[in-house]
């Protein structure tokens, strides 16, 4: 009789342990697919960033050709824009270490485009040209799309990185998705935290 009670008690304890383990596994398993889902969101967001940068790069040859028609002696500025566009096209971001190079190439292109817009100010006929105005509006719209795409990418990276560092995601990350590392994000340019100095002289 004593053995029977002991066996029943042992079965009861084993059943409770099994149920507790199953319950815990079930509760933590709820987030098991979060990591690959968030990883795909990061990839999709990055695809949108690249898409908008490509849109900007595609506008540049038409913009340069239009400016060249009015300001052919501004070869240095036009060449700087064309060269910056070529550098952007040569950087392929397939791993996180290349993100900094990609950002630097995009910054150079933005700087060259800014210089081009300064050149445009010297040519009133160009500023009134309908094709130029259309291209300028498309470029401004694309810059806004780039800002939105970058914001969405930064948010997707934040969600992914948070998931792989917090419970229960950290468990699934170490057990099943150890090949997925924290994703890099964009960072502000040096000096972006300081107000620009403006001089009207």
From TrEMBL:
Pfam families: LemA (PF04011)
Primary location recorded for the protein, binned into one broad class: membrane
Compartmental location: Membrane
Keywords, sorted A to Z: Membrane, Transmembrane, Transmembrane helix
InterPro entries cross-referenced by the UniProt entry: LemA-like_dom_sf, MamQ_LemA
Membrane topology: Single-pass membrane protein
An example Gene Ontology CC term for this record: membrane
Organism superkingdom: Bacteria
PANTHER family from the UniProt entry: MEMBRANE PROTEIN, PROTEIN LEMA
Family: Belongs to the LemA family.
Protein known as: LemA family protein
